[in-house]
Amino acid sequence: MLSTLIELQRLKNLDRTGWTLRGLPAGTESVAAHSFGVTITAMMLSDELAGRGTVLDMERLLRLALLHDWSEARIGDLPKTATDYFGADTRKRAELVAFNDIVAGFDAGKALYRQLYEDYEQRASLEAQLVKAADVIDLLVQVLALERAGARGLDEFWEVAHEGNFELQGVAQEVIKEVLQSLLAAHAEID
Q1: CA separation for the pair 113, 99 (Å, rounded)
Q2: Non-local CB neighbours of 18 within 8 Å, separated by 6+ positions
Q3: What SS3 class is residue 187?
Q4: What angle do CA 185, 188, 191 make, to 5 degrees?
Q5: What does R_g of the chain's alpha carbons equal in angstroms?
Q6: What pTM does this model have?
Q7: Per-residue pLDDT for 4 more than 70?
Q8: What tens digit of pLDDT does each residue of 7-44 get?
Q9: Which of 21, 32, 83, 117 is deepest in the core (most CB within 10 A)?
Q10: What secondary structure letter does DSSP report for 75?
Q11: Beta pairing partners, 40
């Protein structure tokens, strides 16, 4: 366990590549900071859904959010443009192999972590779909914060607010749509 904990510490210092590629300074956001934001967002989304009558497995949701980017401790934070060069299948395969290698040393928990990661990648459960939505929402909250602080040239990130398909339905889809609309409204106020 200790070696995995030490390895995952890398995520605290691993910069999110998208910001670096757009000329933002080192330390703008780490993968660990992003994972924290995803976890907080997923928890709040789940609470909102619970308030509207949709119950989720909170433990599963939070576990999914916490481990969704563990593979980046080994392969780095690959920007979206990397998929254009390597292809989505190659990228997903590399992430899966890295994730499996990271959890290989566990006896207890290994099967659960692998199952959770597979769920996230396949969006097989409502919790996994919600964490994917939280992943995008956290990205957009970060973009909004950067733009409010004066950063420009980040418009491409907002495309996902219009194109995002999280495979959600019913109340979950309504909640995500509301959050995305509020983010887009806040973004429109900047210009």
Answers
A1: 9
A2: 77, 79, 80, 157
A3: helix
A4: 160
A5: 17
A6: 0.94
A7: yes
A8: 999 999 999 999 999 999 999 999 999 999 999 999 99
A9: 117
A10: H
A11: none
pLDDT in tens, 55-114: 999 999 999 999 999 999 999 999 888 889 989 999 999 999 999 999 998 888 899 999
The 10 Å Cβ neighbour count of residue 55 is 9
Of all residues in the chain, the percent with pLDDT exceeding 70 is 99
Q: Is the dihedral of CA 122, 127, 129, 134 positive or negative?
A: negative
- Of 31, 154, 33, 141, the closest CA to residue 95 belongs to 31
Backbone angles phi, psi at 77, to 5 degrees: -90, 95
Distance CA 109, CA 113 (A): 6
Q: Measure Cα distances from 111 to 100, 104, 125, 151, 173 in Å.
A: 10, 9, 17, 42, 30
> Whole-angstrom Cα distance, residue 127 to residue 140?
20
Q: What is the mean pLDDT of residues 135-148?
A: 97
Q: Which amino acid appears at position 142 of this protein?
A: Q
- Beta-sheet strands, E only, within 10-87: none
Residue 191 has pLDDT above 80, yes or no: no
Question: For the chain, what are the domain ranges?
Answer: 2-188
Q: Which fold has domain 2-188?
A: Hypothetical protein af1432 (1.10.3210)
